[in-house]
Amino acid sequence: MVESRKLALYPGTFDPITLGHLDLVRRTLCIFDEIVIGIARNTSKSTTFSVGQRLVMLNNSLAETGLTPFTKVDVFDGLTVEFAAGIEASAIVRGIRAIADFEAEFQMTLMNRNLKNRIETVFLMPSEQYSYVSSSLVKEIAGLGGDVSNLVTPCVLSALKEHFSQD
């Protein structure tokens, strides 16, 4: 019997990628053989960084943290579950930091299951040191001149400094 490799999709806007996101990538690789990190192009969220900038930051952050083997970064449009099916992922990975995250993710999981019931959703909690970290908070702190160097990789820190020095 030939064993198939298990592929997971970790979707998000990653605006920007944080050490909390990278923590979830590490945790996912303990369960799955490979992971595609999908950057959502069309989203209802307005983003600070372009898709191209987020793609560069994500690839550089994966390289800086040694997570490039068994990971691939891709950009997608449309429904996450359709993208997951198209890349033959067996699961969608979602990070849960608090109860509020769970409520929104639970509803999305049920809808995804309705659309493609063969694709599971796996919820992972970040390490305690990242449980409060979000891209929004990182951008807010960086925009006000605060130190976020313990929350992002060096390449993201550089991009944040450059972005907020232009304002």
**Gyration radius from CA atoms, angstroms:** 16 Å
**Beta strand count:** 5
Which parts are unreliable, with pLDDT below 50 for 5 consecutive residues or more? none
The amount of beta strand, in percent, is 15-25%
Q: What general form does the structure show?
A: globular
| Residue-averaged pLDDT | 93
Assign the CATH superfamily: HUPs
Specify the structural class: alpha/beta
CATH fold-level label:
Rossmann fold
Going across the major beta sheet, what is the strand order? 3-2-1-4-5
Largest sheet: 5 strands, parallel
Number of H- or I-type helical stretches: 6
CATH architecture: 3-Layer(aba) Sandwich
- What is the class in the CATH system? Alpha Beta
Q: From N to C, what is the helix and strand string? A: EHEHEHEHEHH
In percent, how helical is the residue content?
40-55%
Distance between the termini: 59 Å
How many structural domains can be distinguished in the coordinates?
1
Describe the structure.
The chain is of the alpha/beta class. The chain is 42% helix and 17% strand. It is built from 6 helices and 5 strands, in the order βαβαβαβαβαα. Strands 3-2-1-4-5 form a 5-stranded parallel beta sheet, sandwiched between helices. Helix 4 (99-115) links the parallel strand 4 (91-95) and strand 5 (120-124). Helix 2 (51-64) runs antiparallel to helix 6.
